Amino acid sequence: MTSDIKAVIVTNVPAPYRVPVWRRVAETDGIDLELVFCAQPHIDTSTDPTDYGFKLNFLAGRYYAMQRRFMHFDLHVWQLLSRLRPDVVITTGYIPTFLIAFLWTQRFGVPHIAMTDGTLQSEKILTWLHRLVRRVVLARSKAFVGACQGSRALFRYFGVADQHIHLACLATDNARFSTLPATDGADFIFCGRFVAHKQPLFVLHVAKGVALRLGRKIRVDFVGNGEMVAQIRKLGEELQEHVICRFHGYVSQDELPYRYADAKIFMFPTEWDPWGVVANEACAAGLPVLVSPYAGVASELVVDNFNGFVRELQVELWVDAAIKLLEDTDLYQRFSANSRLQVSQYNFDQSADGLIQAIQQAATESNP
């Protein structure tokens, strides 16, 4: 009788779009899963970590959250792995703590799985040193898990063979966002951190352009918070002849579906996003999405002229696209239905299956 595969994932923090995936993996026959987190949950603090449904550990060390990335360093991950004695180790990036975990696998001959949300597009800014580190880690990993086709392309770029690449999509609880009737309180909704590369001010400029063309005020909901909140409020006041802004601040996971149901179009004008789970939420709520080509969801979850529009960050292009949806009821309803259809492919079960396949492949091929 073979024993379960002891798999340990070393990752950043518990995230609401990954916790259900890990729970499904932990419930899978033949896999004994344990999570190692760099820090306590800060994305969704409403759930007690002891109720996640899997074994977990929290490291200490210093955790730095930045606009686009995070940093963490804790040598104790080496001791923890030595105590847990996993058969397979999965790391989700290349920060110091993850690299220490990777080095542990090399020291003790334990198969390593590289997991990423990154894409070729999102990693264009990497330095030669970042690329070198990735080449070293990927050359010595046994299986690879990506969040999307962009991740698959990234692995291929580094020479990884297709048969070792598995996809574990980023997903949300689609049913939770699709059960509320639309109320159409706002024309546009922006949901996310109020930081420069998310381009929240761009939304207001688009709203002004649409208002001038349609001859009415455009209502915009802002959900979230961040360093640019004062700038957004200031520009909103300057444009109040054309735009009505509502600021909801940070809202809980329970309240989020109501915010999407109260809007018509989701605006995602990011300059950089490996994926963008907010687009999953919007699609599940039946919202067409306007997105820049610099988000991982562009042309995968959000398909141009199917359930949204993918447009360069030029105000007039977004104004034209938004007006099409606001003026053509049939087009809007078709895009809305297509959003729900499209996002149904991105679910927790599919994501868990990809991770399970990677764990089984790494363990099996390392122990024939």
From TrEMBL:
Residues 75-167 form the Glycosyltransferase subfamily 4-like N-terminal domain. InterPro entries: Glyco_trans_1, Glyco_trans_4-like_N, Glycosyltransferase_grp1. GO terms for molecular function: glycosyltransferase activity. Residues 173-340 form the Glycosyl transferase family domain. CDD domains: GT4_PimA-like. It holds the Pfam family Glyco_trans_4_4. It comes from the Bacteria. This is Glycosyltransferase family 4 protein. It comes from Methylomonas paludis.
